Amino acid sequence: MILDPVRSLVDFPFYREVPKKSIAETVGYLAYIGLVFALLSLIALYARVGPRIDEGAEWAAVNIPTMTLEKGKLSSALPGPVRIQHPASERLAFVIDTTRTTPVAPAELAASTASAFVTQNTVYVLNNDKMEAYDLGRAQNAEPVKLDAAFYRNAAAVLKKVLYPIAFFTTWLVFFVWKHLSALVYSLLGLLISAGLKAELEHGPLYRAAVYAQTPVIVLQAVMLFLPRPIPYFGLLSLILVGVYLWQAIRQMRPAPAAPPAEA
Known about the structure:
The chain has helices at about 5-10, 25-65, 105-110, 150-195, 205-215, 215-225, 235-255; strands at about 65-70, 75, 80-85, 95, 115-120, 120-125, 130-135, 145. It is α+β, with helices and mostly antiparallel strands. It folds into two domains: about 5-50 and about 160-255, no CATH class; about 65-145, no CATH class. Strands 3-4-5-6-7 form a five-stranded mixed β-sheet. The radius of gyration is 28 Å and the shape is elongated.
């Protein structure tokens, strides 16, 4: 199984073996190649998102004033109001006013062109033009929590430790289900190709062939993880590529013509 991805890419006679493969082998192939894809996704995530998390934490450590959350109330070295704007995004801005206890109206938050407003007892967040309020009084922390530079840096480190394993498992699971469903769709294309070639193959072998015929598309999807932008018309390219591989696979899988009867 280890070399099956390579063989399914470059060795069309390999597809003669596909109808003999069991369901367990076919499922195992998707699980195996899914693990490889999830690992590559994790590397791409580490290279792209990891530095951004660190940069965000460092920006927060430098620009956000130290605050203390105690008994559901925030206090700050700079009571406010203080407006903090991220240099990379015009909408990524928020206002801190730990002296304020009155509610913030949606119109006020919208007019401030900030995405969040932090008061002494509530955090207001503007989400798709809808304001959501989070009551800090629900945070029943036994000891005061200091939100300072060390807090943001530690939070970034914890986030990455949680994010990476969750992303790896989620990617593998989604890939596994997605490629099974894709194989079902492509097997219908295989039925049309089989009819055109008069191969008279049943759906079971065609489904197995569709699983392996997706390999070149999976390779391209893995490459795209590291590209700055998607490949144009990738959906159409995938259909054509899998169609070509299915055509070659069915040519290899179709039964040999019966030999003519020997003359008496």
